[in-house]
Amino acid sequence: MIEVLVSLVILAIGILGLASLQLYSMKNSQNAYWRSIASDLANDLADRIRTNRSPKQTTIEGGVMKDEKSAIIPFPPDYARIACTANSSGVFTCNWISGYTAPANTAGTNLAMSDLANWMQLAASSLPVGSTGGAIVCRDNDLSNEPASSGPSLDPAAADFSTKTGCLAPTAAKFAEAPYVIKIWWQEQEVNATSDGKSTAVLQYFATPI
User: Fold this and answer.
1) pLDDT score of 47
2) 182 and 42 Cβ atoms separated by less than 8 Å
3) Tens digits of per-residue pLDDT, 75-114?
4) Disulfide: which of 38, 159, 177, 189 matches 206 by Cβ 3.0-4.6 Å?
5) How far apart are CA 154 and CA 53, in angstroms?
């Protein structure tokens, strides 16, 4: 009888181990899935930004851009100077940051604002962003600058923009020369290591330069 009981205990421990391994595998698969969604979203916005600018070789002379034949071509819109907000229904609208006026020869500004609003809407509906996640395009020269866990700031002119996103503010010294960076962060549920077994939202981060 004792041998049977010992065998049952060993079998139960083995089954629990297999269940734990299965749970760990499912969690990693889910994490990989969310990361692939974030990568697809980043590629989508990168393509939109590249499309909304001239493919010609240009030089800047006297404050205007010129092609190889010295013909004036319009400036592309500066996506890093666009602020976005979401209403109570979660619908995004985007516009230039306060105090900024695009150069007179800038083209595609309405398309840029519409694209960015639609993209943020897509990110919010594709990932579990919750109250502290979000998606943004900004200027940054260090991809390790992760956003804060207190919630996103989608207005580059806000005082806490750099703190909450890890991006450069438009007033930063190296803002103009820094590359575009797409940052996406979302919440994933993980089980606590404590005995209560409750789950908590862990902020995950994905970033890529354009």
Assistant:
1) 92
2) yes
3) 789 999 999 999 888 899 999 999 998 887 888 899 999 9
4) 38
5) 23
Q: Name the CA dihedral angle for 119, 125, 131, 135, rounded to a multiple of 10 degrees.
A: -20
Report CA torsion sign: 68, 72, 73, 75.
positive
Burial class (CB in 10 A: 0-12, 13-18, 19+), 171: exposed
**186 touches 202 (CB < 8 A):** no
Structure tokens at 2: 């004792």
Tokens of 140: 């940054």
H/E element holding 189?
Answer: strand 180-191
How many residues in total does the chain contain? 210
Partners of 82 in the β-ladder: 96
Do residues 86 and 104 touch, judged by C-beta distance below 8 A? no
CA 117, CA 139: separation in Å to the nearest integer?
18
Which of the four pLDDT bands, split at 50, 70 and 90, describes residue 155? very high
Structure token digits, residue 24:
């760990």
- Averaged pLDDT, 65-72: 72
